[in-house]
Amino acid sequence: MPFTPLRLLILIDDARGYCGKVVPRMKELLEHRAFLVDVHRIQDGPVDIAPYRGLVIGTPVFGLGIKGVGPTPALTTFLQGLSDLDEKKVALFCVYPVRPGTTFDRLKGLVLEQGAEFVAAHGYHLLRPHVDEHIIPAECMVRIR
Fold it and tell me: Which of 47, 52, 53, 124 has a 20 to 30 Å separation from 84 between CA atoms?
C-alpha cells in the first residue's frame, strides 16, 4: 500500500504576533514528520477544516497567566463556529510571556465540547519558544496517524 501523507491545519489567533513566533518552526518539524501542513490565522476569516485529519490550535496568553487567560475571546468564538470539529484529532498550544495559567483547561474543554479528540498540549514561552519545540510535532506523529 502506498504511503499517503496526512494533512494537518495549524489554526491560530495571531494577536500581537505571539503564535507567529512558533508556527514557522512547528510547521517545519511537522513536515519533517511527513505531514502536509497548512497554516490559517483566524484573522484571515473562515476556513474549511474538512480536508484535514487533525488540527493544531494555538492561542496567545496575555498578562501574568493568573486570571482571565486564554484562549482569546476571538479564538473561542471562531472555534464555536466550526461545524466539522467533531471527530477531528486536535493538539493545542499557547504562547505566553509569564505562564499559561488555566489556558489548556479552558481550551481543552472547548474542543471537547465541539466533539474533537484531544491529543496533546504544550506551552511555549514567548522569549524561549525553542524549548521543547518537538513536543507537539512528536505527539501528532504518534497520536494523529
Answer: 124
